[in-house]
Amino acid sequence: ANPDGAAETKRVFRGTLIHATREEAAKVLEDALLGVDADGKIAFIGEGKELHRLSKEFAFSPSSVIQLEKHEFFMPGMVDTHIHAPQYSYAGTALDMPLLDWLNTYTFPVESRFKDQNFAREVYTQVVKRTLRNGTTTACYFATIHTDSSLLLGHIADKLGQRALVGKVCMDRNNSVKHYKETIQESLEETRRFIAELLEKKYALVKPVVTPRFVLSCSSTLLGQLGQLAKNNNLHIQSHISENVEEVKIVKEMFPDSDSYTDVYHKHNLLTNKTVMAHGCYLSDEELALFRETGASLSHCPNSNISLCSGLLNVRNVLNHKVKLGLGTDVAGGYSASMLDAVRRALDTSKILTVQDPEHVTLTFEEVFRLATLGGSQALSLDSQIGNFEVGKDFDALRVNVTVPGGPIDLIEHDKPKIILEKFLNLGDDRNIVEVYVAGRKVVPSSEKLLY
Ligand code: GUN
Ligand code: FE
């Protein structure tokens, strides 16, 4: 699906593929053949030695095959399961306070500026371009409470070719910034309008997501109505949960009759198999069991958890509970808009947990690679369409070259694909991501400029 109408043609690539499967966190296919149909879906995957047979079966000329270079590989595009698009405007700054002060001091004043669509257009164009450049083929965005600016974010993601879930933020409680909140009725009506107008555009890759900010920003009535709305229309849901000790304490005081923070969302119909909750640092095993039962997922945002001194999520424990989990940058609580940073911080966090408790089983780089790709697709309930290289899924992929001139990685001649992947994850950056594909469309380097 190409929004410019210029249909992509059928293509066949030959070279190394690395992706996550159920059985193997980082499976390497050397000298593979991968066919992409004109509709952007993976048509076949085979071995180089089958070239002759496959070229007949799928009607392509062996001479048209695009050969990857020696130190190149394809991996699935990365899935950022939690990012605040407006906060990109101050990413890399303002990390000197705990969550609730940080929201009141920095976040709400900045977000209130997105009533201005010119400002929104500028920042949203930057964040979509930057994340695509960093290899984020799918992003699950919070926008702000402003419906028209949120619609603009959907438009920009569509134009630039990023797969996106976009949420108009809902909040009817806020005592710090005067105009940065809604009445219950405004929040519901504007959410309905946002969803209707976004769906009307029929963007191929952009979907709405019901977005109560978090329990502290929403009345019980608003939470319940949003839960009902999502349920009636089978919509995605996103919010925050159990990020910071102070936050958890206040939620318990506000809802003394609920068993837990998770139970508050559950009682408001907000835990479904299309729900993704950010953070979850302080969830009990009972709460994780409720995630597992409802099919709701977690977004692990390690940079943010460290930068705001929020906490350390024990991902091993989450995985042992068989709860779906992806990684998120949580810009701007997390200062980096790169999923490679999220991969590194997830590994760091796991290693710190091992320092604290030697019994803790540290995550491997392969496991974190799976979380950044397949795990994210599962967390957003998009795993039937994306997440790895399976026939019939959309071709969302990064062409990685670890030996780009002037790049950050040095190789030793005999380095094997697993070592090359490990070096890319730990040392690589956007210079090594030489091409980005979303649903078969090459979006980096981009052929067009976004002009208004
Ligand atoms: N909890 C409620 N809103 C936010 C936000 O914008 N960022 C983070 N990290 N946590 C939140
Ligand atoms: Fe967040």
Automatic annotation (TrEMBL):
It catalyses: guanine + H2O + H(+) = xanthine + NH4(+). One of its GO terms (molecular function) is guanine deaminase activity. The lineage of its organism: Eukaryota, Metazoa, Chordata, Craniata, Vertebrata. Residues 74-443 form the Amidohydrolase-related domain. It comes from the Eukaryota. This is Guanine deaminase. Catalyzes the hydrolytic deamination of guanine, producing xanthine and ammonia. Binds 1 zinc ion per subunit. Homodimer. Gene3D superfamilies: Metal-dependent hydrolases, Urease, subunit C, domain 1. Its EC number is 3.5.4.3. GO terms for cellular component: cytosol. Its cofactor is Zn(2+). Keywords: Hydrolase, Metal-binding, Phosphoprotein, Zinc. It comes from Hippocampus comes (Tiger tail seahorse). Signal peptide: none annotated. The keyword Ribosomal protein does not apply.
